[in-house]
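Let us work through a complete example step by step.
Step 1: write down the sequence.
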Amino acid sequence: MKTQTIRKISFLSFALILFIQASLWAQKETIGVTDVKPTQAILQNVDRAGKRISLDRVLQSMNGQLIDRMNATRKFQVVARNDLDAILKEQDFASSGNVDPNDKSAAQQFKIAGVKYLVVTTVDDFQDYNEVATFQGTGRSATKRVIRLSCIGKIYDSTTGKLLESTNFQISNKDVSENKTYSVRDGNLNEDLLVAIAREMSGKIANRVADVIFPPKVLSKRGKQITINRGDGTDIVAGQIWNVFALGEELIDPDTGESLGREEILIGKVKIIGVLPKTSTAEIIEDLGIDKEAVLRKAL
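Step 2: predict the structure and record it as C-alpha cells.
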C-alpha cells in the first residue's frame, strides 16, 4: 500500500513537471532552423582549391551550433531542421513570382505546425589557406592558417512569408602555430579553428535573430542600475555600452505603405556591470527617462 502511494505521488509530481514545462514552452514563439547551405559558386571554388573537407566541417558544426545558440537565447522553442522541408518548398514557390504577395492564401503556404519564424542561412564566401613565415638565420618557420567565412542570415515570418531581416556576417580568424620540425604540414593544424569559427558565426546569427524579434528590454530600474532580460549565452558582456530607447509610434513607409516598426527615441545610455544566466545588470551613465519596457541597442 505504501509503495503504491509513493508511486502515485511520483507520477503526479512528474505530470506536474511536464505540465509546467509545456506551459512555459507554450509562452515561447516557435522558430525553425534550416540546414546551412553554401552557394553553388562556393562549392565550385572549394572543390578547385581542395578545401571541400574544411567547408563540410564548418557546415556540419554550424548545423548543430546554430540550434544550440538559438536555444541559448531562451526566447524560442526551436524546431529541428529536418521538419522544415515543406516550408522551404513553399518558400521557393512563393519567391518564384507565381504567387500574388497580396493574396492571403500565399501566407497560408508558409505555415507549418507551430512554427512562426524561420531562419535560413547561406554561406556566400569561404576561404581556407596557409601562410608561411620563415625566420631568417634560425631555420624556423611559423604557419598561419587563415579562414574567412561569410554568411547571409534571413529571418522569415512563416505565417505571412514576409522577410523580416536579411543580414550579412563576415568572420576572419587566424591560427598561428610554430613549426618545430622546420617544415610546413597542414596536418599539424587541428580542426579547432574550424569549430571555433562555426561557433562564433552561429552566435552572431542567433543573437541577431533574437534582437530582431525580441530586442533586449529593461525589466526593472533601481536607483542608478537597471536589470535587462539578456544573460549568459548571448553577446552581452560586462563593460559593454548600450543605448536605451523608448518606443514611439509605428512608422509607415510612405512609398510602399509597409510598416517599418515603431519609432525608437534615445533616452539614455548604460554600461553592463554583471551578467547572470538569464539577466544582466547595468549602471546608468545617462538618464533621460529610462523606465521598464525600454529597448536597448548595443552602442557602435
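Step 3: interpret the result. The helical segments are 2-26, 40-49, 52-72, 85-94, 104-108, 192-213.
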